[in-house]
Design a protein that fits this description.
Structural class of chain A: alpha/beta
CATH topology of chain A: Beta Polymerase, domain 2
Number of domains of chain A: 1
Helix content of chain B: 40-55%
Order of helices and strands of chain B: HEHEEHEHEHHHHH
Mean pLDDT of chain B: 85
Radius of gyration of chain A: 23 Å
Oligomer: heterodimer
Strand order of the largest sheet of chain A: 1-2-5-4-3
Number of helices of chain A: 5
Order of helices and strands of chain A: HEEHEEEEHEHH
Shape of chain B: globular
Largest sheet of chain A: 5 strands, mixed
Shape of chain A: elongated
CATH architecture of one domain in chain B: 3-Layer(aba) Sandwich
Number of strands of chain A: 7
CATH topology of one domain in chain B: Rossmann fold
CATH class of chain A: Alpha Beta
Distance between the termini of chain B: 90 Å
Number of strands of chain B: 5
Helix content of chain A: 25-40%
CATH architecture of chain A: 2-Layer Sandwich
CATH class of one domain in chain B: Alpha Beta
Mean pLDDT of chain A: 85
Strand content of chain A: 25-35%
Radius of gyration of chain B: 21 Å
């Protein structure tokens, strides 16, 4: 197994971005860690060097560190190399510049992450519009400190309403019918 | 000239043998419907045929979990259907939440929000179980035992209050005035539940998360 093409990508990044920690994770996969303000130039640089496919943005909540990690995935069709760019923003009041000028589809992923992790993306005009959650005024539900089980128990069990149904004699089902 | 009365039981017989089904395929249960509808199990021999719109349907089949977002659409669809109308909950997700029992955005018991006439249990029910459920439904309709839409009308406030607990009913109810009033009434309770579910708990949960997570 040779890692020549992966090494080429690492070298390519290191030539222009000395502060980036680029390493080969395994065959066809390169991991880069950069500061938040260096993501935009790095993605622009990679786009000009064959990484034409912007796959996705994902997010990880590191609650102990007080940070949210954003992972930008890029794919090169010619070399068949996947680059993931990792960066961390603070959990409270974290902000990133939008990547919409480079890739249009970034706008959608940013709206998704804004809704579920509460990261602000500067320059994304559709950020305040509802995306998946409707009428949601709670904390971002994919954060680690949001207890989905407790929320579900509070809102969807509704034992008091079930007893109200018994009082009103509302039967959900009239039992098995005799044929 | 005297008006001829229809024979007793004709109405139920006619209604039971001609059901137009709006299949609201939300979850994985939708995959059990094609074999049930088509040549293998052939639902049409019972007189049940799929219908595309709620205004021409009289059987609402909900095949799987319902997120709050979907529930709004289901209620809107149900309220548009002409009477008599029947609701069949399909799969364990509509009974008690199924595998989505701890999700923050799926409801657990559908009969809190809509008057269920019949449940078909299973995860997922096989086409045989669906056919069995439909046979029950037809028999029940013939005997006039299913009265979901009457229960819904009689206890409208109860159902609307339950719905308002989980969703903003104002945009999704045909009776706008009632929805507005009940929505305002439940705000206090909603706020309390919300506080219990989120604000206080954040600190406790942070304590429970183990140290030494991998970097």
């Amino acid at each position: 197994m040779s890692l020549e093409k992966e090494q080429k990508v690492v070298d390519l990044i290191k030539v222009s971005f000395e502060d980036a920690e680029a390493e080969i994770q395994r065959e066809r996969r390169v991991k880069v860690k950069v500061a938040p303000n260096r993501v935009f130039p790095l993605v622009a640089y990679l786009k000009g060097n064959g990484f034409k496919h912007f796959v996705a943005i994902s997010a990880v909540d590191w609650i102990r560190d007080g940070e949210i990690e954003l992972v930008y995935h890029l794919w090169n069709y010619d070399e068949k190399v996947h680059v993931m760019i990792k960066t961390r923003v603070p959990r409270d009041g974290g902000s990133m510049p939008t990547l919409k000028p480079l890739f249009n589809q970034a706008e959608t992923y940013e709206r998704d992450i804004h809704e579920f992790f509460g990261v602000h993306f500067e320059g994304n005009e559709k950020l305040d519009r509802e995306f998946i959650l409707e009428d949601w005024d709670g904390p971002p539900p994919m954060r680690k400190d949001f207890d989905t089980r407790l929320f579900s128990a509070e809102f969807y069990d509704q034992e008091d309403l079930e007893s109200e149904a018994l009082r009103l004699k509302i039967q959900p089902y009239k039992g098995h019918l005799k044929k | 000239m005297t008006k001829a009365k229809p024979p007793k039981g004709l109405k139920g017989w006619a209604q039971g043998r001609s059901l137009w089904m709006l299949h609201f395929c939300t979850g994985c249960g939708a995959i059990e419907m094609p074999p049930t509808m088509t040549s293998r199990y052939d639902m049409e021999r019972f007189g049940i045929t799929p219908m595309a719109t709620p205004r021409q349907a009289d059987l609402l089949l909900i095949t799987g979990y319902l997120t709050v977002k979907t529930l709004k659409r289901v209620i809107r669809s149900y309220e548009q259907m002409p009477e008599p109308k029947y609701v069949v909950g399909f799969g364990s997700c509509t009974v008690n939440g199924g595998m989505y029992w701890d999700s923050y955005n799926t409801i657990k018991r559908l009969d809190l929000y809509l008057p269920i006439d019949l449940y078909i249990a299973g995860c997922m029910p096989r086409p045989e179980a669906i056919i069995d459920g439909f046979t029950e439904l037809i028999e029940g309709i013939k005997k006039g035992k299913f009265d979901g839409w009457i229960r819904y009308k009689e206890n409208l406030e109860y159902y609307k209050r339950n719905q308002a607990m989980v969703m903003d009913i104002r945009k999704w109810s045909l009776d706008a005035e009632l929805a507005e009033r009940i929505w305002n009434e439940v705000q206090e309770e909603r706020r309390k539940r919300f506080e219990r579910a989120t604000v206080k708990h954040v600190y406790e949960l942070a304590e429970r998360i183990p140290e030494g997570l991998p970097k």
